[in-house]
Amino acid sequence: MNYLIITLLLVLALLTYFKIAKRFNIVDVPNHRSSHTEVTVRGGGIIFPLSIIFCGLLFQDVDLVLLIALTLISAISFADDVRPLPAFLRLAVHLLSVLMAVYALQVHLQWPLWGVALACVFMISGINAFNFMDGINGITATYSVITLLTFWYINSFVIRFADDPLLVCPLIACIIFLFFNFRQRALCFAGDVGSIGIAFWLGALSVMLIIHSHNLKYLFVFSIYGSDVLFTIIKRIKLKQNLAQPHRLHLYQLLVNHAGYPHRVVAICYTLAQLTINGFLLLTNFSMGIYALLLLSICAAVYIHFERRYRTLSTVSQS
């Protein structure tokens, strides 16, 4: 019954937000870096953090400090969707929220100081990676659905690390969001509040899983996004580009903008690729080194293939 209430609340919240966004012009206007051509409501991903807040209210399964941290990082991200904020302010709130999450998850009681530092780096890197990758219709929500379903399977059949509502509520939000976003012409985009909000929560869940399982291989449930970001950064360094400047050199951008593949096809390909990797992780028990070598080699081969194929067009687009 509570899940039904949360579903209805999230649908109502998103429909209400559409009216507010149109009233106050919270929209995404296409520019030369965009992978879309229509003015679209931005910030529809607000239902991702709302799903956790509703979960806390109805199930009372969310740690209060963790909930405050999620609210903080989502609020600053939404404010940035409405009007761009200074980078130092956003990064400061990100760091504060991640530190609060690490405290709430009691990482400092489980791991040494270097482990706490790595947890912070992992969460901040993951948050930014999700934000970088949120550029085409459906990719953030479909990728998040696969990640949450993977976590649910692990929680149900491998090792229990979280209460079910912490996985089911954001999954409901992703499915609702897909109804409005997974279209040829999306009715809304996630915005920073969506991509950063869901990334923060997935990062927190992954830290919970690693603490309970004592197995770092579960970091690879984000390997597709991580590989795309890593290889894109390497390419930009080779091109001597300013990493702080916007670009269109991610693999998904090459596939959409230069190869001409539809947004939804690329989003599904990314999701299925990650699903395949997740299945491999669950069915095997190799060392971290072997996982890293295999997965990075495959991802590198795919990225290099498409990058070489569309190198000329992608380089011209940056000039």
Automatic annotation (TrEMBL):
Name under which the protein is recorded: Glycosyltransferase family 4 protein
Task: Give the primary localization class.
Answer: membrane
Which superkingdom?
A: Bacteria
- Location(s) in or outside the cell: Cell membrane
Recorded source organism is Mucilaginibacter defluvii
* Pfam assignment, any one: Glycos_transf_4
Q: Where are the transmembrane segments?
A: 47-75, 87-105, 111-133, 140-159, 165-182, 189-211, 279-304
Q: Which UniProt keywords apply?
A: Cell membrane, Membrane, Transferase, Transmembrane, Transmembrane helix
> What is this entry's stated membrane topology?
Multi-pass membrane protein
